Amino acid sequence: MAAFMSNQLDFILFFYGLAFILLGFTCFAIARSTMGERRTAWGTLAGFGLVHGLGEWLDLCALIVGDRPAFAEMRTAVMTLSFVLLLDFARLEAIGRGLRLPGRWIHVLPVTLVALVGVAYGLTPANVAARYAIGFSGALATSLVFASQARGASGAAKRFAAFASAGFLLYAVAAGIVVPAAAFWPANIVNYGVFSSLTGLPVQLVRGLLACWLSFSIWGVFCQQIAADMSSARYTAYVRRHLAWTLVAMSAILLCGWTLTEYLGGIYRRNVQQEARADIDLLASRLAGETATVEGMVKALAGSPSVLPLLQGADARDEDAGRATLILDVASSGARQGYLLDASGAVVAASDGRTIVAGGQDRSAASYFRKSLSGQADYQFVFDAASGELDYSASYPIREPDGKVVGVAVLTKSLEAFETDLQQFDRPYFFADPQGVVVMTNRPAARLRHLWPVATGSRSPPSPIVRGSARLSDRPMLAKEVVDGNWTNVDDDRNYVRRRFVGETQWSLVILKPTREIFASRFLGIVITLLVTIMALIYMLGRGRWVQDEIETGNRIRLQQQAIELGLQASTDPLTGLYNRLMLDKTLADEIARSDRYRTPLSLILFDVDHFKRINDSYGHPVGDKVLVHLSRFVPNLLRKNDFLARWGGEEFLVLVPGVSGSMAFQAADKLRDAIGQDVFGEVGSVTCSFGVAEYEAGESAVELIARADGALYRAKANGRNQVVLAPQPGMSHAAPASANSL
Prior knowledge:
The chain is an alpha+beta fold. The chain is built from 20 helices and 15 strands. α3 (36-65) packs antiparallel against α4 and α10 runs antiparallel to α12 (316-333). The protein starts with a helix and ends in a 17-residue tail after the last strand.
């Protein structure tokens, strides 16, 4: 599990940073909807989310493209700044709740402490100090802020605030206590390595999950706040569905993105394994080319008839011929030197041309001599720790015609040319002895280091290279010996390691393929996931905004309709639906003002139902109401569009006739009287009305105008009803004649 998760660190850092950036944007939206100190506080928390998310993405960049001291310093500074913003959010919220705390200058003290630790001890202790002094304190204080907010809330908002409080409390532990390993307590006990070994998970994954938890919890608080402000059951239900679907959608996007990223990484991983196989085949082939020549030439040398007399006491002529053959084979194979050993292990001839005295340079104790004397060829690598030179030695038995072994031929070749050629190899490669000690590499810092630790209780003799080598005290590069190909950590960096044994020996070639290139190929999956996430969030936020606007528009229209209805109720008669006196007074005042301004005529018609009391007494009040309703619907059909009809009270109605003189209004009223008399009013039958008409006189008040019309109506009733009477203008003593006869 730990190995798998270490391969997923790039995606973990991606979604860790994404979750905090989403947290930042959520807090920014909350800040825009609030005012005063709380707006500043939420803006500060938004800054924490955005800066911390950016810091995690910088860690992702360091993982993919490599790290540098200056870049590491910048990332530590960004992380410290984010923790300062988190701590400042808690400070501002505490001040908003009435606590008296110092200003922002108080943050200078922990920041200075972190800087001093960095200068004195390095970046890792500074990172640890920032987490202890600022990160833990800020997360814990923020947890207390949301706990306080949960106590003052109710319903879903209370639950979301409690979730946020618990999330920040756990984040205080994950980010402020679980820290990079350092040489002081408690970082030497509670750190990334210990956490990973106990849980099998990188702590970054836990922090990322907590970041998602925090983002959705605070988003839930924000949505509940909007739902409370809107007071809409529909929006409250939508918010619940929206939160659930958003959580499901984001989880699906991240899981699919993770799967895509792993798929792309798997393709490259297989390519890496194939390339590693091809590379190590190339190295092995190149080395085999160096060794095969020596092996073939030493066999030819041992089988040459001219070397046998050197082992049997040859004359000068045979001795010169044998030495010439030896020198020729050494030159042909590119060997450093060659020599012949007799059955006792003494050197009887050497390629450097020296005369070997009897018993000189005894090699009888050498393993290769004993093996070849037994009739077998022997091949081995020889490393000189003092000079750092690596040779390849091949020995072969020399036989008499009857097959008896009488000596050994030896060729030794330097591998310096091979090493020089491979210095240009772009992948890290190592050539190690059976104990895993690196004797040849294109990475100078790894020379004479153990690739893997020597197994406890191993029967293999210790490497002769160990003596006098200080580099072997370094920690092994690998945790355990690699047999063939494996993905493992090399000096804490993930690599694909490929090993190939050389010939019949226990010496081996090892090459590395850093996973940084795999992270680069996986980056495409991360980018695709980011783009899909952005599009999904834009849709979800846009959908949420559209629903919110739709509900607000519906509420606004409903309020407008209610206002219109209330206005109609205030200005209309509930029985007939005609305008009432309140609306009449306003309209009449407006028409009088218009008449005075433009000097246009204005007339008023007042009429009521004749013998209406008799109708009520004979048929009942409901029938009487029906007569009034029927009349209120019938009369408008006989009026102009700009005429104004209102119920004056009881069975009386009033018509304003703008732009019409008294005589013309008189004629209109007479036509109206006649039409009413010819209509049928249900079970009552025919009904008649009496009319009083008055023309407005400049300077006259509305009360005076209505009074003159009412006087004319009174005279129409007194004259027998079913008549129209035109009131005389002010200053005249007689009314105009009535029309029609009374009933």
